[in-house]
Amino acid sequence: MKRENEHKEYCEQDILDQISRMSEDTEVPDSLRSENIDKLLANLRDAENRKASFVTCIALVTGSEEHVFYGEISGKIIRERRGSSGFGYDSVFVPEGYEGKVFSNIVKKTEEDFNGHVSTGVLGIQHLMRGLTEYGRVDMAYKILTNETYPSWGYMIKNGATTIWELWNGDTADPAMNSANHVMLLGDLLIWYYEDLAGIKCAPDAVGFKKLVMEPVFPDGLDEVSASYGSVYGEIKSAWTKKGGDFSWDITLPGNTSAIVRIPKKYNVTVGNLPGVRRVSATEGYMEVEIGSGSYHFGK
User: Fold this and answer.
1) To the nearest 5 percent, what fractions of the chain are helix, strand and coil?
2) Which three-class secondary structure state does DSSP give residue 263?
3) How far is Cα 31 from Cα 47, in angstroms, rounded to an integer?
């Protein structure tokens, strides 16, 4: 409890809340109120200075307005609630070197407490699918995608939803607190479809899909993906299949664009002397191919 209180003391939002309450407390003499606010402001400045080395305050998600704290040493979440169970994780909030510990605890909690279901609200879900995939748990991301029991997108579909509810239990929730067209609860699902399943992703050093890094993931149970995107340069297409041990991937890039294509070595794809191929190299797990505009077929 003492350590939790220490964390709370230096959480910026908590200090701001205290300042707000103090400002509105008319029963406290002006001089004392001013003195106490000055002390809180000093704590706020101290919190800013100490944030990186002492504590990170993560507003993981909503559902409740509680913040979630984790100890810098253990990476474990100290106080948790249903609405803030951990899938709002984004490494930008976590001190360098502790990402793995925090992520492991989030995954453990999700598997054990929520049976592999989504356990966050509209803010945290913005990082859900990409965060899981980035840290090697595409299997959990795919399970969350395909779940049909509560809470899940599949549950909405099975219960007649044609738009996204505001609440996961939109079929039973109070209509006064439940929009029937709350597209933001999709979170990063559509981004994940394009970037991580289809591999249509703008390179970090480019804009407008001038250059792409095409490195899709291939979840067990998903045999094919086909997607297209209308960029400012023209239509980008990506369609892959993996069935019965055979793998194929068709890519189309519009004029004045290029891509780095990464194909897992386990699919045993040989890249021949194809027109438009600029470079072929290999990493530990991938065959890496640089291509220019045009249409390409890799695999069988």
Assistant:
1) 35, 25, 40
2) strand
3) 24
- Residue 36 C-alpha from the chain's centroid: 39
CA 76 to chain centre: 19
Q: Among 13-17, 102-106, 182-186, 224-228, where is mean pLDDT lowest? A: 13-17
Q: What DSSP assignment string belongs to 196-258? A: IIS---B-TT-STTSEEEE-----TT--EEEEEEEETTEEEEEEEEEETTEEEEEEEEEEEEE
| Helix 138-146 with 99-113: angle, nearest 10 deg | 30
Q: How confident is the model at residue 138 (pLDDT cuts 50, 70, 90)?
A: very high
Q: What is the pLDDT of residues 18-37, one digit of tens each?
A: 656 656 666 667 766 677 66
pTM, rounded to two decimals: 0.72
Between the CA of residue 47 and those of 20, 42, 66, 80, what are the distances in Å?
Answer: 17, 9, 18, 22
Rounded CA separation 264/261 (Å): 10
